[in-house]
Amino acid sequence: MFSNNLTLPEGSEGLPISEDEEIICGEYETYTLARFLFIFVSSWIALFGTSGNLFLLYLFSARNYPNTPPTLYPGVLAILDAIICAMYIFLFGADAAIVFLHIKSLFVLYYIYVIPAFVISRITQLAIPYMLIFATLERFVWLAGD
């Protein structure tokens, strides 16, 4: 019906499955309880970081007074930082939940979005230093203009 083409370590008995069950994943790195708890707590911190950055974006976009510095680049930086925090949850938090809690539906969903999420996180990581430079230049121009 199907071939078991997984490469297993020597001495491994393989996966206990029946003939009508399909293999959807191979061997993976296990998570200790301490590692899972660390990633779980870090994911909650990333969730607070995401919401905090979205709140900053709201503040930057809602408050425009003539005596306040420009907020274009800090707003973009808040968006990028919120994306980084969200990608941490999607990439690391979801992986820890899949492996430690054995959630099959999350496993399937994770492998649908993992590559685009990784690409988005890398693009965001590359864009953040440039936004910091532009925000500094924007602030300098604002201060030098007085």
From TrEMBL:
The chain crosses the membrane at residues 36-60, 72-91, 97-120. Keywords: Membrane, Transmembrane, Transmembrane helix. PANTHER family: G-PROTEIN COUPLED RECEPTORS FAMILY 1 PROFILE DOMAIN-CONTAINING PROTEIN, PROTEIN CBG23488-RELATED. This is G-protein coupled receptors family 1 profile domain-containing protein. It comes from Acrobeloides nanus. The lineage of its organism: Eukaryota, Metazoa, Ecdysozoa, Nematoda, Chromadorea.
